[in-house]
Design brief:
Number of domains: 2
Number of strands: 2
Structural class: mainly alpha
Helix content: 40-55%
Strand content: under 5%
Low-confidence stretches: 112-125
Largest sheet: 2 strands, antiparallel
Order of helices and strands: EEHHHHH
Length: about 120
Amino acid sequence: MFDDLVPLAKGGFIVYHGAVKKVEEYFTGLGISVLERVNPPDHYIDVMEGIVTPSASSGVNYKELPLRWMLHDGVSKQGLREAKIQAAEYLILLLAGACLGSITKPSDQTFGDAGYAHSTIAVCE
């Protein structure tokens, strides 16, 4: 028997990570319950693949399951907000660099594409 379970959704995102004994409790808390005479692991796999749709009252879509796990597992909404802001800032820098790189002379080595690539690396660190 297994002690822990880590089912993955499409793309390799974690849907649940924890004790096998608590997996049914977790999914039931999301509104995904297993019908009688249905194998729970098969049912959860079908839900994660989008083959079986949870009840409409649960309000859960199979695409949301990784996000639901992240929120359950301690990733706060504030952390997600900060990540969105960082992504937006990175895109702005990327667009600015592309625009500035397109208006510079190709012979200028300290400005434009080559110079921006170094600043991008600095932003990512």
